[in-house]
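Workshop exercise sheet. Pairs work together: one partner reads the sequence aloud, the other fills in the structure field after running the prediction. Swap roles for the next sheet.
Pair: D.N. / O.F.
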Amino acid sequence: MNYAFNLIATVLNIYTIIIIFRIILTWFPGTGYGGAFRIVSSITDPYLGWFRRLGIFRAGNLDFSPVIALAVLSLTRSAFLFLARYGTISIGIILAMVLQAVWGIVSFFLGFLIIVLILRLIAILMNQSTYGFFWNLIDSISRPVIYRVNRIFLGNRIINFRTSIIFTIIFLALGYYLLRWLFFFLSGILIPETIIIPVIPENLTV
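Structure field:
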């Protein structure tokens, strides 16, 4: 049984690599017409499509559904690796894995937003022109976040755009470390205080 769990984890690992390869191919124009791309797409798109159809993982022109899909695969793979190693699993361990997967997604988005805001701040400090597709994309992501954060904490108070970016970066950075501590604190509580549920019945073991 442990061999079967290891095999499933290995298959999921290979499938994850194929999905990452599929995502990288989309970065290069013209690759969508090759035979290799069509084969990879036929393998990965049915799974990725489940998350893409939800529509809640889009921010402007960016589609983050592959990140969620990879996180789910990582969570499933971790569960099978744990089963392969120990032959048992607990509700607490499952919940801890889910929390860690959720934190992986949350930390990715927070880190991504912080990087976007830092780029926008650097452009302002250097008086760089912000016209063009790249900066329009940056603004389409950053402005809604800046607006919401400042609206919540500053209300109708008017501050300049540079200050509002700095305030939002500080808020997101503090949120990142606070949530990181919270997720790992909860994971540490869940793992030791639960009853282990045997996956393989004792009367079937040799």
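Discussion prompt: Strands lie at 58-59, 62-63, 88-90, 196-198. What would you look at next?
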